[in-house]
Amino acid sequence: MLIHGQCHCGNIAFDLYWEPDPARIPARACSCSFCSKHVGVWTSHPAGKLRIAIRDPALVSPYVFATRTAEFHVCARCGVVPVVTSRIGGRVYAVVNVNTFEGIDSALLQHASASLDGEGRDARLERRQQNWISDVACLEGGD
């Protein structure tokens, strides 16, 4: 399945290749203050491939907080956060915001809450390596 998503203005877009086609797509609503305020509901498929396209990199505001191990890619034009990345051991891992999906039946989404309070830095990075998308590429400055 090809899942396309983007911020509201289209400056940050992505294609997530999810094989085999999922019966359900996990949609985790993080309870941290940043995700709560940005309505971040995240999914990943460790065996998936993620291709991120950024039209104007000058209009992307990277935001990091707390453990400083994840980068939220905020569109400076429309304010939407479609992608979060984490660089671990020289490799980029990512999750995508299901609220930025286009043309995906919402009945596929299996919503759950997620609280990462109290999770240590090492445990967090290990969880990301196991659960986040590990095949991530980014193209900047093109349509």
Number of strand elements:
12
* Main beta sheet: 7 strands, mixed
What is the beta-strand fraction? 35-45%
Helicity level, as a percent range? 10-25%
Count of spatially separate domains: 1
Count of separate DSSP helical elements = 2
**Average predicted local confidence, pLDDT:** 93
Order of helices and strands: EEEHEEEEEEEEHE
CATH class: Mainly Beta
Structural class: mainly beta
* Biggest sheet: strand arrangement: 6-7-8-9-4-3-11
Report how far the terminal alpha carbons are from each other.
22 Å
Gyration radius, in Å: 14 Å
Describe the structure.
There is one protein chain. With 143 residues, the protein is mainly β. The chain has two helices and twelve strands; from the N terminus they run βββαββββββββαβ. The protein has a single domain (2-140), classed as Metal Binding Protein, Guanine Nucleotide Exchange Factor, Chain A, CATH 2.170.150.70. Helices cover 12% and strands 43% of the residues. The model has no long low-confidence stretch (mean pLDDT 93). The strands form two sheets. The chain has a seven-stranded mixed sheet, with helices on one face. A five-stranded mixed sheet has the order 10-1-2-5-12, with no helix packed on it. It has helices at 33-38, 121-131; strands spanning 2-6, 12-17, 25-30, 41-43, 49-54, 60-63, 71-75, 83-88, 91-97, 101-102, 109-114, 135-140.
